[in-house]
Amino acid sequence: MTDAQEISDHWGKGDVYSRILETMELAGIDPNSLTIEQLAPVDHFHARGFPATVELADALPIREGDTLVDIGCGLGGPARYLAKRFNCRVEGIDITAPFIEAANKLSALVGMADGVRCQHGDGQKLPYEDETFDGGYTQHVLMNVPDRNAFFAEAFRVLKPGAFLALTEHGLGEVGEPHHPVPWSEDGRGAYLMRPSDTVEALRTTGFVNIDVTDTGEKYLQGYKAAMALAEKGEAPVFGTHILLGELAPQIVQNAARNIEERRTQPVQIVCYKPE
Ligand SMILES: C[S@@+](CC[C@H](N)C(=O)[O-])C[C@H]1O[C@@H](n2cnc3c(N)ncnc32)[C@H](O)[C@@H]1O
């Protein structure tokens, strides 16, 4: 099995779209009057979910009419949020085919199929022309990317001069060796964590400038702890990302928290720019 297939199988188990619709029904959400806010507990599939997307968006110079690329777009939640908030267009690409199918069906369901288009592909080899996008972002994707240099070079190529690239991820902590399972890997296979300082160096070598790094570890930790506290009280929401993480979800959340506390991972948000 190729690395790409293994990573795709890890994320997209079974019929993802049907599972989302079935769980929406259980949660009493009517698909015929669905809003992107109702989808947010599931389709912002990264640490801290929707609030983390909002904070990232607050930090980005997005203008009305921009065209953005979401590399590793997952179910398309962040893409739909940005398209709606900034009245811009977003192209998404993701290596997991069942996520792309679900992303496009969800966009159609909320009437946003014109503004957000997702397609199947690998961030290490983007299917776009040079200098296409006003900005790009990649949330919680790089943990699975074997060739970061190729990934950054492709992002650089498809961005216009002056465009931003934003990324969020669990970087490798100074202690290293995260406990598994974690969201991106059950047992360490398909995991390619890098120290944030090495990521910054790779971005710089690619040509990106004005690289700004924010440590998001404490916020993530509080987010995981809040989710664990709700689960302990039996109050975890019916419609949440556990439906994507599967039966290992409780252990995954515990490990994600513990890895940060033990400095095995170091979550970061990085914003940088292609020179003018
Ligand atoms: C934690 S999910 C994040 C999804 C989305 N960015 C979000 O924040 O909602 C990680 C995503 O990265 C995708 N991914 C992993 N490696 C990739 C690659 N080389 N190219 C494109 N997508 C990739 C996975 O398929 C998965 O959808």
UniProtKB/TrEMBL annotation:
Keywords: Methyltransferase, Transferase. GO terms for biological process: methylation. It comes from the Bacteria. SUPFAM superfamilies: S-adenosyl-L-methionine-dependent methyltransferases (SSF53335). GO terms for molecular function: S-adenosylmethionine-dependent methyltransferase activity. Residues 69-166 form the Methyltransferase type domain. InterPro entries: Erg6_SMT_methyltransf, Methyltransf_11, SAM-dependent_MTases_sf. Pfam families: Methyltransf_11. This is Methyltransferase domain-containing protein. It comes from Ruegeria marina.
